[in-house]
Amino acid sequence: MASTRSGYGSSGGGFTILKSIELDILETGKLDLPDDVLAEADYVVATIHYGTNQPKEELTRRLVGAAEHRWIDAIGHPTGRLLGKREPYPLDFDALCRACAGAGCLLELNGHPERMDLPDTLAAAAQRQGVRFVLSTDSHQPNNLVFMKYAVDLARRAGLEARDILNTRPLEEFRKGLKRAAR
Length: 183
Prior knowledge:
- With 183 residues, this protein is of the alpha/beta class.
- The protein has a single domain (20-182), classed as Metal-dependent hydrolases (TIM Barrel, Alpha-Beta Barrel), CATH 3.20.20.140.
- Helix content is 34%, strand content 14%.
- It contains 7 helices and 7 strands.
- It has helices spanning 2-8, 35-40, 56-68, 93-103, 120-128, 148-157, 171-177; strands at residues 11-12, 15-16, 20-24, 43-47, 74-75, 106-110, 133-136.
- The strands form 2 sheets. Strands 3-4-5-6-7 form a 5-stranded parallel beta sheet, with helices on one face. Strands 1-2 form a two-stranded antiparallel sheet.
- α3 packs parallel to α4 and α5 (120-128) packs across α6 (148-157).
- The longest helix has 13 residues, at 56-68.
- The chain is globular and about 45 Å long.
- The two termini are 21 Å apart.
């Protein structure tokens, strides 16, 4: 992470490079990176990529544990759905929302056309429970950044406003809004 910043500078040309990590919540509930690495990042998203066939209680436990972890800022693609390929995994969504609202953990609204996760109905339900959000494209290449318009559309259908979405704010407000800023 440090080499990226030193190579490009931490800020310049009108943008800032944040040291960000998307990590996996392992089947045991452990995170796949140690706390000392997570502490060095500016922003960390935890996701489930494997073990999606576990029982509802286990999947919920994994997500709630990550939401409550001190260095996790957001839960990515929370239902795990892949449109036309994989149904959402079983999850106690209310328990996840309570954990996120209580810990200050964000839920991702992923605009990738294969995900569209959270669905608008769940995003609206989460917002009513006090959860805040971050918009994402799940980009793995630059041309995927256009998927942001789908994340915005998801947020609008859910009735969310800019105040509900942390990454609609200026950089310093974004940083201060992350739960890691409270430490």
